[in-house]
Automatic annotation (TrEMBL), chains A, B, C, D:
Name under which the protein is recorded: Myo-inositol-1-phosphate synthase
InterPro entries listed in its UniProt record: Myo-inos-1-P_Synthase, Myo-inos-1-P_Synthase_GAPDH, NAD(P)-bd_dom_sf
Entry similarity comment: Belongs to the myo-inositol 1-phosphate synthase family.
Matches recorded under SUPFAM superfamilies: Glyceraldehyde-3-phosphate dehydrogenase-like, C-terminal domain (SSF55347), NAD(P)-binding Rossmann-fold domains (SSF51735)
PANTHER family: MYO-INOSITOL-1 PHOSPHATE SYNTHASE
Protein origin, superkingdom: Bacteria
Length: 381, 381, 381, 381
C-alpha cells in the first residue's frame, strides 16, 4: 500500500448515518474504539489491500447547516455514539464540517448547472486534499418513487433535455451524474433512484467509473437473507411473511410519507421471492414512531409448512440502532469502491450485493452466498 | 438404481417421531402427500441416486406395546398428521406394527445377551424382507447423562466386562452395538451416548459399517446455526444468547428430568462458541409444559454490539411441531446412511453435520457450510 | 325462572362466528362440553336469572347457502371446534339450518320492503317457535365506512326517503330497522353502522326495545383494556402504541378491503386515548394472511416513560382463534339483551361496554371498570 | 400540612435503587424533572395529605463505601438517569452520602449489639435532622432463603437467644428489628425475610409501629396482576404460564445465586394461583446476563383455553429499567408508611399490596382491586 489517500464524499453529510460515519472514523483512527462492525476488517479481506481507515478523508453535500458537532451530541444522547467520545472527536468533526458544501434541491437551479456545480465541489475537494480517488456515497433522505421520463432512457436524450432547460432527474440521480462527471465512483445506500437509469449507466461508462447500490441491508432484510435460505435448505415451505418496522428519527419521518415508504417497501419485498423461488403472501409496514428516535424495532411473523403439510410459525423482533448498523457499511463500501476504481473496474458492481436490499446487477439475495462472492471478488488479483 | 430395498429400523419405534415417520412414508408413497420437508428430495441431491422412498421398509424396537394406529390417531388429534390421512395409512401402519420387536431396558437381561438378541432381530428383519441393507436410527427417549466406565475406552475392555456379566453401557449404546453386530449402519437422532464411545467406534470398524449423529437439529439450534454466522459475517459481536424451550409430549416429560435435560442443554450449547469464536454468556432452559403436547415454543434473546460498541438485541420465537420437523430428517438420514453403506464407507460420517446439534467428527456448525459439505459428499462419485 | 324460550337471530348466520355459536350451544346443552368462555356463567351473574342456555333457539339471515354442517366441518379442520363434536351436533345444526332465511343485499329490493320482509322473518320465527322474546345479533361481514345521508338524522326523514323509493341505509342498519320493527332487541357485534343513527335510535324508542354494540372486543383490544389502565395506575406515561393484526378467513378477506379496514381500525383506536387521557402515537394495521385461517396473530409494541423520563418498552403477541373468542360473547349478549327486554329497558345499553371495542353510550374502556358496571347492572333488581 | 420533615432511611443505600431514589428526589425537588412514575402524585391520593417530596430527608446503611456521585454517574452511563442531571444533583448526593452509616453483615458483631448500633444510627439521624418520623426501607441485596430457627417464633425466645450470644436472624430481620427498636416504620422492598417472623411482628407491636412488604412489584409480576384477572373476567382458563427473566447489574449477580433466586421465584409464583383460583403449570427462571446491566428483559408465555376447549396462547416481552421502576415506588412507600405512622396505625399494612409481589396480610393480587384498596385506605379520615 502506498500512502495514497481516498476521499469519501457523503450526500446527506449532516444526517444521522453520515455523522456516525464521521464520528466513528475519527474515534477509531484516534484509537478510541475498535473497528467493530466493519466487514472490511475481517481477515478474509486482508488480501484485498484496501485503503487504510486513516487514509480516508471526509466531505460532502447537505441542504441543512446544522454543525456536525451538534448532531454528534444528539446522537450521543440517543445512545448511538458513546458520550465519552464527543470530546475526542470534536476537532476532527469541525474539520469535516468545513468540507461540507451546499447540496442540491429540486427547482433551486437548472439541473445541468447543478451537475456542474456539484461535480466542481467534488473535484475541488480532491484537489485541496490531494486525493488519489473519491467515492461518493448517497446517505441523504429517501426520495419518493420517481415518475418515468423519456430522458431517463439514454444519455443523449438526457443531455438534450438538459440543453432544453428541463430537469428530468430526481436529486439522487443528479448527485450520481455529478459524481460520474467528476470521475468519482458512486454508491447509493438509499432506495432512491441514484445511478439506476440507462442514461446514467451510460454516463458512468463514458467516465469509466464503477458504481453500486442500492439500499443498505441493515436490519429486518438482513435477517431475512439468512432465514429464507434456511427454510429452503430444509425443504420447509414458507407460506407467509409479514413485517412491521417501527422507527423514528429523520428517516422515520421521511418514510412516514406514503410515497417514500412505497419505495422502501418495494425494495424490501424484492428479495424474498428470489430466495424462495415462489411468491409469498405478506405485507411490509414502515411506521414512524417519533419516540423511538434512531432505534428501529422490526417484528416479522412468518408461517411455513413441513412434513405432510403441517403448519408452523416463527416470529422475530429486531431492535437495532440504524445509524450504528449503517455507518460501518458505508465505510466498507467506500473502501471497496476505491478498490474497484483503483483496479480500473467500471459500471455496476454486482459483487457488492452483500451490503444491499436491492443489489444492482444481481438476483442473489442469500447472505452467505453474497459473502462468498464478495470475498472472492475483493481478493481476486 | 436397482430395485434393492433398504430397511429402516427405528429404536423407539412407537414414539411420536417414529410414528410420524411411518405414517408419513406410507402417505407419501401412496401419493397422499408431497415429500415436503425432505432434504433428500432437493434437486441438488438428485445426483446421489438415493434409495427411492418406496423402497424403504420399516421395523424397529420399542419397550411399549401401543399400536401404531392408536399413536397415529393421537398425532392427528394433536395436528401433527392430517386427520384425513388416518384411513389411508392404517393398513400400512399395521404391517409396520408387526415388524416391531421388544426392545431392551437396563437390568432386564445380561447386556451381552441383549446385544445378541437385538442384532438377531435386525438380521431376521433383513432376511424376512429381503433387504439389501439396514439402517438403524435411534429415536427413543433421551437418556440421562452417562457415568464414565473403563469398559467404554476400548472394545476388548468392553468384551471382558460383558464376559464378566457386567452391563457398562447405556441402552442407546447397546442398540448401537446390536446394529454394528448385525452389520447395519447406525445413526443417533437423540443426544444419548449411542455409538460415541471408543469401544463402539472399534466395533463399527470391526464390522465395517458407517455411523452418524447426534441429536437432530430441528428448532432453536437450527435457527442459531444461521443467525450466529450472520452476526459474524457482519462483524457484529454477539454478547449474550439466552434460550427457553417449552414443550410437552413424551419428549417434554423426559427432558423435565434434570439429568436428561442436562444432556440436551449441553448438546445445544456446544455449537455457539464454535460458530462465534468466543464463549457467550447465556443459559438454555428446557421446560415441560404438558399443555403444549408435541408443539414446542422456543424463545431466544440475544444481545450484540456493533460500531463503537453500541448495544442492540434480537429475539425470536419458534413455534414448531417437533415430530413434523424430525420425521423427514430421519428418512433423509436413512437414505444417506444407506448410500454410505452402499459405497463401503465406514466409521463416523462428519458430512452429515447438517442434520445435528452435535455432529460427530466435525466442529462446523454453520448451516450453509454444512449444506455445502453434505451436497458435495452425497454427490461425489 | 319460567320455561320461557328466547330466540337468538343471527345476521350472518352461516359465518364462522355464527356457526361456532350454533355448534357450541348444541354441544354444551348436549353435555358434550363445559360452558368455558361464557361470562354469563360466572357466579357473579347468577343473581341475574338469565335465560338458561337450553332455552335459546337459533335462527337467522345470511346471503349464502352453505349448509351449517359443512361450515362446522371446515371449522373442525381448522381446529376451532373439536373433531369429535361433529357427529354429536349435526342433527341440531340441520334444524338450525332450516331456520335461516335469505338475507338482504344492497340493491336487491326496495329498502322499505326489505325491512318489512326481514321483520316478517323474525316474527314468523318467534311464532313458529313460541318464543317469549327474540334478540337479533349482527355477526355478518363488516361493511365499508358509510357515507352520511340526511335521512340518517331523523326517523321521519328516513321514512320519507323510503316512501320516495330511496335506500339510504347500509345493510347493517336495514337489519337493525327490521329487528326493531319486529319488536326484537338488537346488538351489533361488528363495527358496522347498525343501530347507530339517530333515525334508528328513534325507531328503537318507538318500538320500546333495547339495543347494544359495537364491535366485539376479543383480542388485541381486550388486552389493551387492561394494560393501558395498568400503566396509568402506576403513573407510567405511554408514549406510543403500534399494533399489527394478521388474520385470514372470511373476516381477513373482508378487512383486507382498505375501506372496511378503516372502519375496524378506527373502532380499535378510539379507546386508548380515553383510557390514558392523552393521544398516543401509533398506527394499527390489519393484514389478510390467508394461511392463518380463523386464527389471528396480533403483535403490539408500546413505549412508555417512567421516573426521570427513562424510556422502556413492552411487546405482546396474541394468538387467538377469533371465532372461539367471539362465539361465547354472542351467547352472553343474547342472554343479557333478553334480560334488558324482559325488564322493559329500552334504548342503548351502556352497561354492556365490557363486550365491545366501541361501546354505545359510554366512554369507559377499562375492562375491570366495565366488568363492575356490567355485574351491577345485570344483578340490579 | 405542617412543615414536619420525614426521614427515609435506606438499607442498601448505595445500591442502584437507592441511588436512583436519591438522585431522582434531588432532581424533582430542584425542578429538574416531573414526578413521573410516582403513584402518590395521582389526584386520587391528593386527599391523603402525604408528606411533600421536599420534606423527605435521606440517609441509610450500606456495607460498601462507593460514593453516591460515582454510582449516579454509572447509572447515567447505563441510561437510568439522564446525563444532564448529574451536575444538578451532585451536591445533594454528597450531603446524602454523608448520612450513610456502615451496615451490618452476618458474623461481624453480636446480633443484639448490631440491633442497638443500627437503631442508634436511625435515632441519631432523626435527631440531627429534626425529623418528625423515620421510615426504613430495605433495598439491599436479596438474601438466600432462610433456615427456620426456634427463636423466630416469639419475641421472648429471640431475646433469650440474643442474650445467649446467638445470631438467629438474617440481616434483613436485624434491620427490621433496629427500625422497630428506634420507633421507625419499616418496609421491605426485597423478597428477604425482613419483618416477616412472629418475633419481629411482636417487636413492631411493642414499639407501636407499622410495617409493610414484600418484594416490589415492578415488571413481569405487575403485568401478570392485570392479565390473569383479564382471563378470569372472560371465563378463559389459563393452562400454563412460563416466564424467563434476564437481568444483569448487582441484582442480576445476586439472583444468579440459585438460593436467592429460589426466594425470588417463590415470591413471584405465589400470586398466580390466588388470582386464577387453580394451580397453573409453569416455571419461572431468573438468569444473570451481565451485558444487560440494570435493564431487565422478561418473556412470558401462557396458554389458555376458551369456548369448547380451544387452545390459544399469548406471549409478552417486558423491557424495563428496574431501578427506574422501583425508585418511585420506594418514595411512594415512604410517604404512605409515614402516613400510617402519623395516624398511629401499627402492625402489618395489607392496604399496600398494590406495591408488592408478596403482600403481607393479604391474598389479593389483582392490581386494580389493590389500587382501589390503597386509595380507600390512604384517603380514609
Ligand atoms: N440507517 C440504516 O440502517 C439505513 C439502511 C438503509 C438505507 N438507509 C438510508 O440512508 C439514508 C440516511 O438515513 P439517516 O438516518 O441518516 O437520515 P437523516 O434524515 O438523519 O439524514 C438525511 C440527511 O440528508 C439530507 N438531505 C435531504 N435532502 C437532501 C438533498 N437533496 N441533498 C443533500 N442532502 C439532503 C438531510 O438534510 C439530512 O441531513 C436514508 O435515505 C435511509 O433510508 C439507512
Ligand atoms: N422431535 C425433535 O425435534 C427431536 C429433535 C432432536 C432429538 N429428538 C429426540 O428424539 C427422541 C424421540 O422423540 P419423541 O418425541 O418421539 O419421543 P417419544 O417419547 O414420543 O418417543 C420415545 C419412544 O422411545 C421408546 N423408548 C423408551 N425407552 C426405550 C428403550 N430403552 N428401548 C426402546 N424404546 C424405548 C418409548 O417407549 C417411546 O415410544 C427423543 O430422544 C428426542 O429427544 C427429537
Ligand atoms: N371473531 C371476532 O373476534 C370478532 C370480533 C369483533 C367483530 N367481529 C365481526 O364479526 C363478523 C363475523 O365474523 P366471521 O369471522 O364470522 O366472518 P365470516 O366472513 O365467516 O361470516 C360472515 C357471514 O356474513 C354473511 N353476510 C355477508 N353479507 C351479508 C348480508 N348482507 N346479510 C346477511 N349475511 C351476510 C356472509 O355470507 C358470512 O356467512 C365480522 O364482521 C367481524 O368483523 C368478529
Ligand atoms: N428494582 C426492582 O425492580 C426491584 C423489584 C423488587 C425488588 N428489588 C430488590 O431491591 C434490592 C435492591 O436492588 P438493586 O438493583 O438496588 O441492587 P444493588 O445490588 O444495586 O444494591 C444492593 C445494595 O445493597 C447493599 N448491601 C448488601 N448487603 C447489605 C447489608 N447486609 N447491609 C446493607 N447493605 C447491603 C449492597 O452493598 C448494594 O449497595 C434487591 O434485593 C432487589 O431484589 C428490586
Ligand atoms: Na453459504
Ligand atoms: Na363510546
Amino acid at each position: 500500500m502506498t500512502d495514497e489517500r481516498t476521499g469519501l464524499w457523503l450526500i446527506g453529510a449532516r444526517g444521522s448515518v453520515a455523522t456516525t460515519v464521521a464520528a466513528g472514523l475519527a474515534l477509531i483512527t484516534a484509537g478510541g474504539a475498535a473497528p467493530d462492525g466493519l466487514v472490511t476488517e475481517q481477515p478474509e479481506l486482508a488480501g484485498a489491500h484496501l485503503v487504510p481507515l486513516g487514509h480516508l478523508v471526509l466531505g460532502g453535500h447537505d441542504v441543512t447547516d446544522v454543525p456536525l458537532v451538534k448532531r454528534a451530541a444528539q446522537l450521543a444522547d440517543a445512545g448511538v455514539i458513546p458520550h465519552a467520545a464527543l470530546a475526542l472527536v470534536s476537532d476532527e468533526l469541525d474539520r469535516t464540517c468545513h468540507r461540507i458544501r451546499h447540496g442540491h434541491r429540486d427547482g433551486e437551479e437548472r439541473q445541468a448547472d447543478a451537475v456542474e456545480r456539484l461535480a466542481g465541489d467534488i473535484r475541488a475537494f480532491a484537489e485541496a486534499e490531494s486525493l488519489a480517488r473519491v467515492v461518493v456515497v448517497n446517505v441523504s433522505s429517501t426520495e419518493p418513487v420517481v415518475v418515468a421520463h423519456p430522458a431517463h432512457a439514454a444519455l443523449d436524450a438526457l443531455e438534450q433535455a438538459w440543453a432544453a432547460g428541463e430537469s428530468p432527474l430526481p436529486a439522487s440521480s443528479v448527485y450520481a451524474a455529478a459524481a460520474f462527471t467528476a470521475g468519482a465512483a458512486f454508491v447509493d445506500f438509499t432506495p432512491s433512484t441514484g445511478a439506476r437509469l440507462p442514461a446514467l449507466e451510460q454516463l458512468a461508462q463514458r467516465h469509466g467509473v464503477p458504481w453500486g447500490g442500492s439500499d443498505g441491508k441493515t436490519g429486518e432484510t438482513l435477517v431475512k437473507s439468512v432465514l429464507a435460505p434456511m427454510f429452503a435448505a430444509r425443504s420447509l415451505r414458507v407460506r407467509s411473511w409479514a413485517g412491521t418496522n417501527l422507527l423514528g428519527g429523520g428517516d422515520g419521518a421521511t418514510l412516514a410519507d406514503p410515497e417514500a415508504m412505497e419505495s422502501k417497501a418495494r425494495s424490501k419485498a424484492r428479495g424474498l421471492e428470489a430466495m424462495l423461488g415462489h411468491p409469498v403472501d405478506g405485507p411490509v409496514h414502515i411506521d414512524n414512531i417519533a419516540d423511538l428516535g434512531d432505534w428501529k424495532t422490526a417484528w416479522d411473523h412468518l408461517t411455513f409448512s413441513g412434513f405432510l403439510g403441517t403448519r408452523m410459525s416463527m416470529q422475530f423482533t429486531w431492535q437495532g440502532c440504524d445509524s450504528s448498523l449503517a455507518a460501518p457499511l458505508v465505510i466498507d463500501l467506500a473502501r471497496l469502491l476505491d478498490l474497484a476504481a483503483r483496479r480500473g473496474e467500471t459500471g455496476p458492481l454486482p459483487a457488492l450485493g452483500f451490503f444491499f436490499k436491492d443489489p444492482v446487477g444481481s438476483d442473489e439475495h442469500r447472505l452467505f452466498e453474497q459473502h462468498r462472492i464478495l470475498t472472492e471478488w475483493a481478493t481476486a488479483s
